[in-house]
Amino acid sequence: MVPLLLVLLLALILFGAGFALKALWWIAVIVLVVWLVGFVARGTGASGTRGRWYRW
Predict the structure, then answer these.
(1) Are 53 and 36 in contact (CB under 8 A)?
(2) For residue range 39-55, what is the model confidence (pLDDT) as tens digits?
(3) Between 24 and 38, where is the model more confident?
(4) How far apart (Å, rounded) are the C-alpha atoms in residues 34 and 11?
């Protein structure tokens, strides 16, 4: 009974980790797209140069 519980627990942990990693990949892709759109669509400053659209 204990080995069966251990195998089920391991399967549950691996399934959870796989789901979390897939979700993190989707978040990374969304952030990359937002960054690229902001990089392309940034406005020009008062001096005519293109400024940064973020505050870092």
Answers:
(1) no
(2) 777 655 555 555 555 55
(3) 24
(4) 35
